[in-house]
Queue: 4 jobs
Job 1
Amino acid sequence: TEPPQNLHGLSPAQFALLKQKTLSAKSHAYCPYSRFPVGACLLAAPPQATAAAAEPATYITGANVENASYPTGICAERTALAKAVTDGHRAFAALAVAADTETPASPCGMCRQFVREFCAADMPVFMFDREGGCVVVTLGELLPMSFGPEQLLGREGGERA
Amino acid sequence: TEPPQNLHGLSPAQFALLKQKTLSAKSHAYCPYSRFPVGACLLAAPPQATAAAAEPATYITGANVENASYPTGICAERTALAKAVTDGHRAFAALAVAADTETPASPCGMCRQFVREFCAADMPVFMFDREGGCVVVTLGELLPMSFGPEQLLGREGGERA
Amino acid sequence: TEPPQNLHGLSPAQFALLKQKTLSAKSHAYCPYSRFPVGACLLAAPPQATAAAAEPATYITGANVENASYPTGICAERTALAKAVTDGHRAFAALAVAADTETPASPCGMCRQFVREFCAADMPVFMFDREGGCVVVTLGELLPMSFGPEQLLGREGGERA
Amino acid sequence: TEPPQNLHGLSPAQFALLKQKTLSAKSHAYCPYSRFPVGACLLAAPPQATAAAAEPATYITGANVENASYPTGICAERTALAKAVTDGHRAFAALAVAADTETPASPCGMCRQFVREFCAADMPVFMFDREGGCVVVTLGELLPMSFGPEQLLGREGGERA
Ligand SMILES: [Zn+2]
Ligand SMILES: [Zn+2]
Ligand SMILES: [Zn+2]
Ligand SMILES: [Zn+2]
């Protein structure tokens, strides 16, 4: 399968590694209820204005962790981001997600909302099918007119530091 | 404030009622944590092919119900839809949401996902600001490339009746 | 099947009605993923110090509403409480839940947390199996040492009105 | 502050390390909405019947990651467990949680439910206050009569492998 034409600033090597890590993350899923394993991977942006090429890139993976109480479970993308944020990352160059589907699976709305707190509207989201076929869009395309921190923080009486 | 030019099939009277119910639903919010009351209203589609004009329309409202454990809370749109679905409604002509914001607040990603299970991509979503100013888009515009029942049901080994 | 010996202040007629409404609420579930319908019913407490016997009791039902994105779904108990709260109820005399299980199904932890925001520790929770067999415990027994509003509100800098 | 008398099988050194990691995990929280940082730490059980003392213990930490859409956020305990499970851990010797509270903060119901999928009823849960004061109970005490995998898996027609 061919990589997308537009890698949104990633190098071919970064894309290849992101793809490999995302596909293999599926095997860490705990999904006895849906039997629908999903893998995810975030590429953390280098801190500040450091050149990406000069900086060792950090890849943080995740997979879905389901629960007998379905609403209590956590999707792959949110597992990856919760890991990344509590590891100190606050900016990201790309998100990728993979499922054993015929056409590339997209993040659910809850995950789009969760990553939107930290990720820019122009961050690419790479979506893989079971053969490794890929479609890429930006987060802004997946969650237009989004609800975010600006709506809540800095309001009168809503100061939060 | 002017209604949107495109009412997406609603009559002016239906739009006016939807707006009024959505704005007043805000007052039923329980939001001691965010102090951000949100109101929502669904207009249930008449069953089958009955003409909308001939059928008494059903409006189902909701508001946000927060919790000391923030992730346990429920947004206004999901309250309205959970009510509607357990009242037997399965098709909807419109969703509306209102918040005390300067510009119309949009549904969070989790709510877009929740309503997507039942609502068509061309269903209008009317969003109101604190003055009653309105913006309207379709659900498909708010949640493009969505993840839905088709991806899970009817899979090999995923039969669910 | 026999009612529990301790009805926790409900009259036999109230218990019978609560049971009937809870069992029949199961039929309103939307659960194509789990095929595990759950029904729930809240008995709203009469406002203020009005005697229960003198006041018409209000029963609010709910059922589970699942989603292709499993974590986005809502359980029966939370559907019922979100309805009740946005209808203006703030105090409850009983919660009941029913599932098609051999032994009475209990609320998941997320639902225990959600109802704890409004319900007293000594509120009874009636749990029914598929034959209508019943076990009753209090909310405090289901969620001991709970995390609640007291921990968050009224803190220094956490004023919320 | 004194450690609890009953360490539930942990060595004093393991408890000391668990405490230190849990308290310092708080500093990784992203909580601009609640301003209520929570830290959590899981002690993974050594695989199989290996003696704990002989095996290097694995500690996995987490913190709360909030979202402008409050219900979309993830608590500290769930962050830690989602990390641990997707790292391959399936059994745990202890969970610990810490908050800047006067009395030790307990896990919310949603987190009790999430960890119950993997953790035994007799697993200890250590809860710390802002001074490091500690209370310990078992998971079974925090979530009695719990709803778990047994209720869903292995049902007739509910086979999931
Ligand atoms: Zn998701
Ligand atoms: Zn929402
Ligand atoms: Zn539940
Ligand atoms: Zn929690």
Note: Residues 12-143 of chain B form a domain with the Cytidine Deaminase; domain 2 fold (CATH 3.40.140.10).
Job 2
Amino acid sequence: MLNPADEAFGARLPQGVLRPVTEAYLEEPRGRLHGKAGLIAAPRDLDETAAIVRACAEARVPVVPRGGGTGLVGGQVMWDGPAPLILSLERMTAIRNLRPTEDSLVAEAGATLQSVHDAAAKAGRMFPLSLASQGSAQVGGILGTNAGGVNVLRYGNARAQCLGIEAVLPDGSILRDLKRLRKDNTGYDLRDLLIGAEGTLGIITAASLRMVAQPAGVGVAMLVVDSPAAALDLLALAGERMAGCISAFELISGQGLGFVAEHFPDLRQPWSEPPRWSVLIEIGLPSGLNPSDALEGLFAAAADKDLVSDGVIAGSLAQSQALWDLRERIPDGNRLVGAVASHDISLPLDELARFITDADAMLAGMADVRINCFGHLGDGNLHYNLFPAKGKSRDAYDDQRGRLSDAVYDLVMARGGSFSAEHGIGRLKVAELERWGDPGRLAAMRAIKSALDPFGIMNPGAVLA
Amino acid sequence: MLNPADEAFGARLPQGVLRPVTEAYLEEPRGRLHGKAGLIAAPRDLDETAAIVRACAEARVPVVPRGGGTGLVGGQVMWDGPAPLILSLERMTAIRNLRPTEDSLVAEAGATLQSVHDAAAKAGRMFPLSLASQGSAQVGGILGTNAGGVNVLRYGNARAQCLGIEAVLPDGSILRDLKRLRKDNTGYDLRDLLIGAEGTLGIITAASLRMVAQPAGVGVAMLVVDSPAAALDLLALAGERMAGCISAFELISGQGLGFVAEHFPDLRQPWSEPPRWSVLIEIGLPSGLNPSDALEGLFAAAADKDLVSDGVIAGSLAQSQALWDLRERIPDGNRLVGAVASHDISLPLDELARFITDADAMLAGMADVRINCFGHLGDGNLHYNLFPAKGKSRDAYDDQRGRLSDAVYDLVMARGGSFSAEHGIGRLKVAELERWGDPGRLAAMRAIKSALDPFGIMNPGAVLA
């Protein structure tokens, strides 16, 4: 049994760590969930973090870790059970030991992704993980959820950027593993176990991260394709020509561009009528090869195979940015329209095109919805989101939402996909994990959770019920 | 307490899985360790593997998993305690569901790395993990030990090639997670936990692996550098010019080339007198860029900065292969000379050059040894190996070996390095892990081991004492 984080418990914490309980700590970006909190604690360093967790372990008080609060599955808001202590990493924001010649830096958990980008750029390097929410998202949350974003195709997700971690385990003990090594085979991979565990196995307090060199030449293009199948063929063709130098390959639907046109009319679009399907491709090349030439060569080869019908190749940094702006406004457009249901899914690449065709057809027979399917095609990761028909409101779909999502997930899982590609489980997808998770895997997860957190104080209700 | 795998126990196993106990199952490549075995079991499929492990769990019989047997730290040979059952994956060798358009395949644990390479090549793709021992090393062992090799710099180690696993857990239950997904954030990362656990947390029976496109143009060069520091500067320069297209960057010492010249006199070397330091660089480029031109450009830029003094750029596939042969014969040369002590270490890149200088100086004051320092410089991974002085035998160093290795490891660890970069812990480095492992990390490892393998049947004595 867990106990609430009450005033008497607060008196046992290190001096000066408590902060007033304000709304900002209880919210999540979509505004649909509301957490509770007995206390908010913001430690200044590792030792204070450990002291807080140790006190929670002794008193059986639940701990909800909080980074930038940008997660989309409710991992950061606990609404059930005794009022938790929210452990905010907001005061641990240092970026230290940035080593450009080694391409490594150490960031504390509360540092924003943007601050890591800025520090790397200042040293002439690049941190290769980009998210729309990077101004608020923090390193601890990014690792805790194994965040993805637009450059995973080339550089991998958050997991792949991390060389080492420092963490406080559920009993308040400290795991010190801030290595700067590219190779280290000395025992179990606890780093990857904590990454993506969404704060249920411990709290990451700092991470050693890798940087990369900026590619010598960067090119961006938006190409019109006939279908997702053609987009995948284009990706394969690009893969063969580019030797892994594709930094992003994003699928964009006409519906998504339509929402953007409706809500951001000042944003110039390449076509007066949004093409039904297009892709945004970014390449980063070795020196000696002109990116525009490479993209023109790709376009010509793709046109020969009837894979592309039109396209724009950015001729300047401003034009590249304008194309990216279009892509990045799609989630904003979605928010303003208001989704009936959103699905962060992934599929094996060979199943992806058929999934889109089949899911579209299935939903057409089930409900009057508009579908905006977009996302990180190179990773097989789609955001398959449903919106009210024109003139209808989101609320009108309240009694259909569950049925529609179930049907989408059923189809995804039948094709060997994932019901959460990059957002994680949080509290919103615990039932889905129960339903579709492999029983052997779930049993092993429970055994590990019990072994490391026997009292269940770490982010209770997240990931595992 | 564990029980031996005796005849009575053998009668409880599935029909036809037992094989005669022969020497081949009890050996390791360096011929210095000798394991024992009560029974050898070679299951034909997942269900038989699970049945064997379940029987072992019930009877508390130790299980030693065996792949190609090429490991260098004794993970595959158990010489202490009750005679184990050796579980050989040699009959599970299928490669199935190879999907070139998706760049994925599923390999059973007993498939050799070479057979995965061949299958990928036949489909016009590439499996990006290369080891000297790939003709014998098997997928299960490669994942169990998170093997490295020469292409880690670009493609990552074994871990990074794996999209999903199927495994038998220590209680005989099955973990089914043969996903073909690039992104899947649905719970704890058990895949990465089993990878590198050296068979102590379960037995990987099959893996879903990624393939990659062959780069459009491949170039190889061997460049003479003044020092490891210059080699690192060259690596940084190449990184900036090549946008991540460096497939290998290997440091080679004059001592290593000398051993090769001595034992493989037919192998032509580029220089009559081996240069004190050189690097082998391989690049794999996008189409439109000539690899020889790119390497010549790199050489010119490096010469401008006084980083290189000489070099050969391969003009043909045969010449590329000849340069690689030189590199790959270095371990064979070492074996024929007979090392006093070998150290598979890694260092933060910023510490690496100074480490070599300091370690060389330290050893010069300690013993009369020849040092062959070579390895995967791009990963900070050195094979820092000590050999008898000319005319002396390996045995003459028996009473110095421990002291010399301790001194090397002490220096490595003081500089933030690792005492096992790619070979793992096995049974030979258990004491080192005890000594240098972070206490918080070790405690968490033990908790996980107890949770998943409460009777300690899985590869006892490996990784954790």
Note: Chain A touches chain B through 102 residues (CB under 8 Å).
Job 3
Amino acid sequence: MTYCVAIKLDAGLVLLSDTRTNAGLDNISRYGKMHSWEVPDERAVVLMTAGNLSITQGVITRLEKRIEMAAIDPECETILNADSLFRVAQMVGETMRDVQERHREGMEAQGASFDATVLVAGQRKGGSTRLFLVYSAGNFIEATRDTPFFQIGEHKYGKPILDRVITPDTPLEKAKLAACVSMDSTLRSNLSVGMPLDLAIIETDALKITERRRIEPDDKDFERLSDAWSKALNSAFHDLPHIF
Amino acid sequence: MTYCVAIKLDAGLVLLSDTRTNAGLDNISRYGKMHSWEVPDERAVVLMTAGNLSITQGVITRLEKRIEMAAIDPECETILNADSLFRVAQMVGETMRDVQERHREGMEAQGASFDATVLVAGQRKGGSTRLFLVYSAGNFIEATRDTPFFQIGEHKYGKPILDRVITPDTPLEKAKLAACVSMDSTLRSNLSVGMPLDLAIIETDALKITERRRIEPDDKDFERLSDAWSKALNSAFHDLPHIF
């Protein structure tokens, strides 16, 4: 499995993913799930993937191939020249559908799961920040003020904290902490999610990735956060009134 | 779905279950998942069930039928005269296997899921408190000091808090709060788990259910706990140091 979380705030986008991929418990590898592109002062796009790795790698490779082709043929539409982030999400969905169709028959015969999801986040000049969740079938939904975050992969362990603290006006720094706390809860409870982590921030109207950080297993800041949260949670729990 | 949690402490057993059953999102009903029996000063046994309702009801009905039969034929082995809690878990497993076999062919033809799990908790005179998790296949595992709690059904949302606060020497009152907080997180994040709740406590060596309580949706104590936890969690989060 995997765990990726994307939060859309008035102040910008907070994106966090793990790097664990497994085919069974005895076959664990490390693959980044976060892929980012920038056109300085014009757009920043980040994709995060979960599900069947052969499918999601196929999607990313095809999207990058188009970017290479556009260097030769400027007519070629890519996620870096599409006229809106909505169109970027559509292109990710279309690419997903192509890859799925190519492999469906063979994978069905093997009984393999071809489930895959992609989070599409970014902003282009003249547009607002957008966040989409693209499904295996290529269809997609967008985050709104009512639902300002999306999670893919092992989403359940880390959902309660996000449900409680995230609103569209949460400051970026707080949302970054919330994403890390949500990831920390997931890491503690589920072996199929693992360090290192990839964190990216796209501040509203910056039109670039304002922060990009790989959090390694021995990252002192993440360790301090994890310890502080553990202590805070324990003391919050022990201070609960004896109601029952 | 469903959510049931059972915690085995030095001080006794804490058991909590919801009452929601659904066949699709548009077919929601209320069924107690907690079933209890007592032989005063000799034993207390509580079963909690998750999964296919026709299977779990089948298991409970057969176990009760044997108890009725034993009133006529004292040779008949039941969960109330079995010579150990281990044997009780075995009987639940055997009954599970019988019910599964009876319905497997028909259910397979319908593509229905016959997945079902049962938590078996209790104590008999001369024995210690025991907690078992019985799987669909009738096999089972026992809680130990390393893993002092079991969850069945929608277990992921409510696992992080238990992972952090439960150890075998946690007092009963604290474990009761932890079970309620774990349930509260699950209720907030997942529609397939719903009030009212059933709570039972079996204190070590009491050989009876020392507390049994149905927590209705308007239960003032549960509301206060839920609010207190929400506030404590939010303030714990907002007091985190700005590490990143």
Note: Chain A has one domain: 3-238.
Job 4
Amino acid sequence: MYEREHGLNWLCFEAPNGHLSQRTRLSLSSSSTSATTTPIYAQPGGDSIINLARGDPIMFERYWRQMGDKATVVIPGWQYISYFSDVTNICWFLEPEFAKEVVRVHRVVGNAVTEGRHIVVGTGSSQLYLAALFALSPHNASEPISVVSQAPYYSSYPSMTDCLKSGLYKWVGDAQSFNKEGPYIELVTSPNNPDGDVRRSVVNKSEGILVHDLAYYWPQYTPISSPADHEIMLFTVSKSTGHAGMRIGWALVKDQEVARRMTKFIELNTIGVSKDSQLRAAKVLKAVSDSSEDAAGNSEEDESFFEFSYQLMAERWKLLRKAVEHRGSFSLPEFPPAFCTFLNRVSEPQPAFAWMKCEVDIEDCESFLQGHKILTRGGKDFGVSPKYVRISMLDRDDNFNLFVKRLSTIHL
Amino acid sequence: MYEREHGLNWLCFEAPNGHLSQRTRLSLSSSSTSATTTPIYAQPGGDSIINLARGDPIMFERYWRQMGDKATVVIPGWQYISYFSDVTNICWFLEPEFAKEVVRVHRVVGNAVTEGRHIVVGTGSSQLYLAALFALSPHNASEPISVVSQAPYYSSYPSMTDCLKSGLYKWVGDAQSFNKEGPYIELVTSPNNPDGDVRRSVVNKSEGILVHDLAYYWPQYTPISSPADHEIMLFTVSKSTGHAGMRIGWALVKDQEVARRMTKFIELNTIGVSKDSQLRAAKVLKAVSDSSEDAAGNSEEDESFFEFSYQLMAERWKLLRKAVEHRGSFSLPEFPPAFCTFLNRVSEPQPAFAWMKCEVDIEDCESFLQGHKILTRGGKDFGVSPKYVRISMLDRDDNFNLFVKRLSTIHL
């Protein structure tokens, strides 16, 4: 159990393509499917391992290359030396320039209310998730508060929540089977990771506190229906602009005391958040907003980031659906198109992950695909059946294309 | 108790000079010394509040200004997008360029052995401290492992250790009174924060695991006697180069499994560490090493960072000692000079904090100084008598000079 939850490859951060990863080796030794019958050591060229288990959003790199210097950041050695950014702000390590661009991008996209909200910046939205748990847990309770989320839920929630065996909060699992009395924290990820569903809270008890993880509520992934307006909303540049290496996320928080306690957690955890990455994130968000506004003015000089990324996602989903429908052995979720207030037209939901189900007589889809040198993350990690796997749609073009090609040749 | 340990101003990150801080207000209301008799609301000009409670190392800004573009970092929008830096490294989010400069600066300064060590990068050394606790705690034990450090100890250790009420580890306090059987973790901070002492472990039981916090083991603060050679050593740019806003620290770790588990913690906590700040830290460390080597070659074009900062610390300590000796109401620790292998001469220990004791009949020195609008951190926060206060020596020139001036006018 410990190895499963806290093992070194829980987040599937393995060796890159072309190398045999530790996770692969571990899985192989305990696999009961065809994985054991197919040698999966890396081969040169097109026969290498395709790792789509992780959600590294490098497919946006192409866009940022073509933007040239527009999102380049320059920081002299003597600037941004202090721990402090703005001591008049509850979140004293929040760079004002970053805060300004957060407000602007939400206004431009129309995906979240920022009026009357406190912004708390975090080292990625992971840290903000932990900060929210710290802020929302009663600190004098006799037992830890329950933390729940509807299955399938983000596979890192259980290990992030329980890794320190906190006496403040405890992962309880699927929100749909939760029926304990008293306070609880419910995580609502919408669109959901792994399956792309638009979500609402499901527990509906009086003492629930909601945290909305809106990492994927951007026009390239889902139609924007209206500005989200919840108590605590989490966002991250990793999925919105594709800059995972920055480790910058932000929370929009209605309650001042919650914002204060989240800030306190980040102070105790890392004494603030990299100023350099906040400055770079400001620059990148500015470029995104600029490109969106330029596009609205019908200028063709600057391609809109969201148009670019929407088209890229659309192409990929089309290719994947074709490969999957062709054989009938797998299925993908279907989503109804809807009007997107940002794109000002009907758009398709095209999640950052494909949640694929094995429709034939194979119990462990992750192991089965491993046998074909395709690394994915299995349903069990998300609290559901191993017939499901989650596949990243955000990898590099060549890797994604190779995956679709290989998937369409699998014989069952 | 909760407010004391988890209150919003534990780390003394209050409002800046010229404003009445929340901490000041809180302390005032419970103060039993002359603080209550002296109005401490901010006055214009030289009568404002001087906040030396925090260790914001902004005095090095001047050096970095005069270095011009030498430590400027430029990052295009399309670079360093991925979560990953080097997947062949245990610490897969460690930027190779940063790792290279860490090894180089330790070789140039001669303050730590890097051969045969794993480097783990962290969001400041705070995160690495927590990562070390996670890595060293037995995860199947019936009770949390004891964490101890000799008093006076770094005031944030207790709250950082206990804020999540972890079942893995627990702050127990002063190492000198620790006599429990079984495994424990001892933190050795050397030179010590707050008092500047050169430290060794004091418990000396068989099941002890040591973590060495060497944030201040640099030539401007203490004579370098030999390369430190311990199991786990923590460093940070905040105190070495003065770039606190980067939030970059590093651990040198002998044991591979410990490095792996520390990496795992950072993965669960923040999924890695800002690449932008790692790149900037690499640039800054390179400038430090270059300036040290140029200085060794007797070139006068580039001032050596450590010579510059040593001289600055020397001036400040001279001023402070003069002000303190002048009145006799306070005392400062005395340190024997010693040969510094880096400076190649006998040098003075000149800690980043002054650990000042009130020698007259005042019980609470922090409150007393607050009454004179000087904010410090009191001995209680460090596990010792309130007759002591810790004073930052790293603030801006004008703030420091104002402090010395005011201190020398205090009548007792």
Note: Chain B has two domains: 2-62+304-407, 75-293.
